[in-house]
Amino acid sequence: MELKINNKIKQFQADALSIQALLDIEIPQKQNGIAVAINNNVIPKSNWNSHLLSETDDILIISATQGG
């Protein structure tokens, strides 16, 4: 499966991939303080396990940072 994540094309071996599975692969160490949007729609964290991705999805992963 080919996915566009944060404007970069990446290849994955899975035929079906949920948002949570993608995050487990991409950022396993930091999953607090992030938001995910698919095709400009923010997906609630409660739906990450059930929302399946397709190759036409434009995925944006945003991580909150501290600073001042």
Numbering strands along the chain, what is their spatial order in the largest sheet? 2-1-7-4-5
Structural class: mainly beta
Q: Shape, please?
A: globular
Please give the number of β-strands: 7
Q: From the alpha-carbon coordinates, what is the Rg to the nearest angstrom?
A: 12 Å
On the 0 to 100 scale, the average pLDDT is 92
Helix fraction, binned, reads 10-25%
Q: What is the quaternary state of this protein?
A: single chain
Q: Note poorly predicted spans.
A: none
- Helix-strand pattern, N to C? EEEHEEEE
The CA-CA distance between the termini, in Å, is 39 Å
Largest sheet: 5 strands, mixed
User: Which strand-content bin applies to the residues?
Assistant: 35-45%
Tally the helices. 1
Walkthrough of the structure:
It is built from one helix and seven strands. β1 and β2 form a beta hairpin. The chain has 68 residues and is mainly beta. The N and C termini lie far apart (39 Å). It is globular, with a radius of gyration of 12 Å. The mean pLDDT is 92. The longest helix is centred in the N-terminal third of the chain and has 8 residues, at 19-26. It has one helix spanning 19-26; strands spanning 2-5, 8-11, 17-18, 34-38, 41-43, 52-53, 58-63. The strands form two sheets. The chain has a five-stranded mixed sheet with strand order 2-1-7-4-5, with no helix packed on it. It has a two-stranded antiparallel sheet with strand order 3-6. This is Sulfur carrier protein ThiS. InterPro entries: Beta-grasp_dom_sf, Mopterin_synth/thiamin_S_b, Thi_S, ThiS/MoaD-like. It comes from Flavobacterium zubiriense.
